[in-house]
Amino acid sequence: MIAVATVAASVASVAYALTPGIAATGTDTASTAPTSSCAAAGEKRQLRGMWIATVHNLDWPSKTGLSPARQRGEYVKLLDTAARRNFNAVFLQVRPASDAFYRSALEPWSQYLTGRAGGDPGWDPLPFLIDEAHKRGLEFHAWFNPYRAAYDDRISTLPAGHPARVHPEWTVKHEGRLYYNPGLPQVRNHVTSVIKDVVSRYDVDGVHFDDYFYPYPGGGTAFADSAAFRRYGNGKKLAGWRRENVNKLVAQVSKAVHGTKPYVKFGISPFGIWRNRTNDPDGSNTQGMSAYDMIYADAKAWIKARTVDYVMPQIYWPRGLVIADYKVLVPWWAKTVRGTGVDLYIGQALYQVGTGGPWSKPGEMPAHLTLNRKYPEVKGDVYFSAKQVQNNPLKVMDRLADAHYARPALLPLISSMPKGTPAAPTGVKAEGGSLVWAAQPGARAYAVYRTAEPDGCATADGRNLVAVIPAGGSPAYRLPSGGVFHVTALDRLHNESAPTSARITLP
Question: In what residue span(s) does the Glycosyl hydrolase-like domain sit (predicted)?
Fold first, then answer.
């Protein structure tokens, strides 16, 4: 049996006790400790996520034609892995190529569900995908590819009603694939409508683009958008016009997302090199492909315009690589977002681990996160991809767990997102070997901190954070030891309440 004592003296008739600053009356109230003036420590807030790729069945589902039960079972295993690793976000590809992993009146079912584009899988996966993520304390970001229309350029093979089949004038055939033309206002409107539809109907936490804008250089074929350029170019140079087209889409999507649900985040994971210093004095000291010049993705423009809430550059190279050194690119991106209010997370190439060179060393990836700690602008990491998180190549995920993810973390607070202070938990007490409290309306989760003695700054230090408990049912934390426990309520953005605290003494 667990006994609970007041700080001053044992009170047998009270089931729990409150720390100093709160009257020990048997009815708890929020602490009045000045936590806002406490110095933060211990990486309390950090995004930890993984991409779940559906294209070509890379991560989920493992193959086409699985029963809904098999699809659900595979997905839950991926989420359980993420939760076990103390992750707090997943980025799932819901639109690989003008198709849908959800029931849509605008685009057909994805071929990666049933094996046939437009084939009804017999259920709408997205509510389940979102709910299961939330049950495990994971944010769900819906990942869209904006311009890829099909992996085959034969329009006639697309399902009836496919937007590219209805509007072939929107498309460009390029090196065997079909793309929507970014230079057409109709295309931008359609993409925005698709995304707004998802944000309106589903409880997503974010909208996410990866690095695919204009096609990457391939066989050297020119992208055939000259007719659109003649009509809409307005005297600009081709490259500048293309970048402006992408910038317009980003701004339009940002406005639609935030106008629909202000709390839904919008961010992009650009190619890791914006420009090289040899081409632009503001560029990085690198020698690789320039996203600005080759795929017309101007991440600096999005950051400056605040049309993204975060950027997540894919810095998929090891330390010391001359053309693209991780040690060079992280400080460059940190400097680029500094003072802008746009969050910075790093896209990590977990899929490279074990492939040779520096990636054959199990310490390479953990060293990336150690380096990130030098730059306060870096607020987390996301791994490509879920299958590798599950496979744990070279036991790297175990190393990350020991050195960086031993404790849970709250989500970073993005400055552009709504602010608020949830109501503090009530009814905090020990019961049946667990710390329990009353569920709070509007709470997405609860944070539990532990200190040896009362500490007015306990919740400012991530080293005290022992659990993040998703809301739902009767919230509880299994007590492994005694101490002073501090419980806060978190809304969906992880705005945090004042703590309610109690000293627990184990027999």
Answer: 46-355
Cis peptide bond prior to 507, omega within 30° of 0: no
Q: Which two three-digit tokens encode residue 475?
A: 């919230």
| Phi then psi dihedrals of residue 327, to 5 deg | -70, -20
Residue of 66, 247, 51, 251 whose CA lies nearest to 142: 51
Model-wide pTM > 0.90:
yes
Helix (H) or strand (E) holding 434: strand 434-438
91 in the same domain as 35: no
Higher per-residue confidence, 132 vs 8: 132
Is residue 227 located within the same domain as residue 213? yes
Both tokens of 212, joined, read: 């695919």
H/E element holding 254? helix 238-260
pLDDT digits (tens, 9 = 90+) for 89-122: 999 999 999 999 999 999 999 999 999 999 999 9
> In degrees, to the nearest 5, what angle opens at C-alpha 384 toward C-alphas 195 and 215?
55
Strand 177-180 and strand 171-174: the pairing is antiparallel
**Does residue 136 lie within any of the structural domains?**
yes
Note whether 74 and 108 are same-domain residues: yes
d(CA 209, CA 187): 16
